[in-house]
Design a protein that fits this description.
Length: 183
């Protein structure tokens, strides 16, 4: 269930999701702001939450505008051209790191995602952004190990970070760099 509203020249989508437990704001590359809430939340509470986060949203949108001018849109052809090369790179690095972890994974997907470097599904499928190919080796390795460790810990608990730290001791530094990096 969703509703679209416009607040101070900002397009906002309010989404109620049964699985959601908390109010959350996501800002997409197209400048669309999505407020996700538990199914039982009222639209009034979602509006109040959005209003309380207006300054943060404006800062993020400004930052996105500045990054957009620096990072060119690469497009579908660029993705198609580099997808298999990215798959080969990811598979090689997964094989290398998994010799230390010995986790079982299923499908590996290479995608052209706008907001994520990688993800891990509950079924053990690992997904990676093809642009991982263009990152410095240490940053790419961090992403690969991060997703690999989600096969054992599907959260960001202390145990999860200890698994990551096992192979990537400077993971905190790399995480900060990647958070600032435009995808």
């Amino acid at each position: 269930m969703s509703r679209v509203v416009r607040i101070e020249n900002i397009n906002c989508v309010f989404k109620k999701v049964r699985r959601s437990k908390h109010l959350r704001i996501t800002i997409h590359q197209d400048r669309r702001v999505v407020v996700t809430a538990p199914f039982y939340a009222t639209y009034r509470s979602m509006e109040r939450f959005l209003d309380s986060q207006k300054d943060w949203i404006k800062k993020r949108l400004t930052k996105m505008d500045n990054q957009r001018s620096v990072v060119p849109a690469l497009g579908v052809n660029h993705y198609k051209k580099h997808k298999e090369q990215a798959r080969e790179f990811v598979l090689n690095r997964l094989e290398y790191f998994n010799q230390f972890y010995n986790f079982k994974y299923n499908r590996i997907s290479i995608r052209n995602q706008k907001t994520r470097w990688g993800s891990c599904s509950k079924k053990g499928n690992l997904n990676f952004n093809y642009k991982i190919l263009f990152l410095p080796q240490d940053q790419a390795d961090y992403i690969i190990v991060h997703e690999l460790c989600h096969l054992k810990e599907m959260n960001h608990s202390r145990d999860f970070w200890d698994l990551v730290k096992n192979r990537i001791p400077n993971y905190k530094e790399l995480r900060k760099i990647l958070r600032k990096q435009a995808i």
